[in-house]
Amino acid sequence: MLLKEQQEDGMEHNNKEQRRRLRDAYMKLGLQMQPNAFVTLTTNDTAKTDPREKKDQKNGPPKALTWRYQGEPKVSEISKTLDMTRLIGEYLAMMDRALLGRNWSQVSPDQRTDGLFIIEHTKTNIHAHGLLRFPAAKCHDLEVLTLMKWNRLTQSGDTDFQAIYDLAGAAGYCMKEMASVQFSPDQAVLARQFHTT
Questions:
Q1: Which domain of life is it from (predicted)?
Q2: ∠ CA 93-100-42 to the nearest 5 degrees?
């Protein structure tokens, strides 16, 4: 019995060490990207709209996220994470289009928005914290632009946009849940995964 407990303690220590190393690697990557903004994206989605409904010609498709529609069983956290990842990709594309023009997808990836997001609270109020480096934009208020673009993607979503004054502190806050046993590597989203080369 004692040997089994020691083995379980050893496995827990190994898992904890792996989570720490993963967090440290993402911290290092986040710092290397030299982000200029800390962005939080929330969905706050409480709509009961069924996205399978026919597209409204005037208002477009329903904006409710796919895991919250009426009459369906609870969808797994994996599906929620994938849906949030998709929304993040769409947000980044919309920002690049606004900042770089209509040929934004042909711009070199190193000239586009770069950074990473960590998705949190996949069981409850799912949201994502991001460290982002936006391309230089002289005529755009990035905070307002972020709110406008995110609101186009979500029915009741909200944003928190802050300039970074303490990069290590912002990165630490962004990655605070990576130490949790429930954290999945799928909750880490790189802007680069949406870039085509």
A1: Bacteria
A2: 35
Render each residue's pLDDT in the chain as its tens digit; 197 residues. Answer: 555 554 455 455 568 888 899 999 999 999 999 999 999 999 876 443 334 444 455 554 444 444 444 344 345 667 888 999 999 999 999 999 999 999 988 888 889 999 999 999 888 889 999 999 998 766 678 999 999 999 999 877 899 999 999 999 999 999 999 988 888 889 999 999 998 75
CB 44, CB 66: distance < 8 Å: no
Instruction: Mention every residue, 6+ apart, whose C-beta is less than 8 A from residue 123.
Output: 77
List, in order, residues 6 or more apart from 195 with CB less than 8 Å away.
109, 112
115 alpha carbon, distance to own chain's centre: 10
Query: Which residue segment(s) compose the domain that 167 sits in?
Result: 2-194
H helices within the chain, ranges in order? 2-32, 77-100, 142-153, 167-174
Cα–Cα distance list, 68 to 45, 118, 176, 180 (Å) = 7, 21, 26, 25
Q: How many domains does the chain have?
A: 1
Contacts of 5 (CB under 8 A, 6+ apart): none
**Kind and range of the H or E run holding 114:** strand 114-120
Neighbours of 104 (CB within 10 A): 18
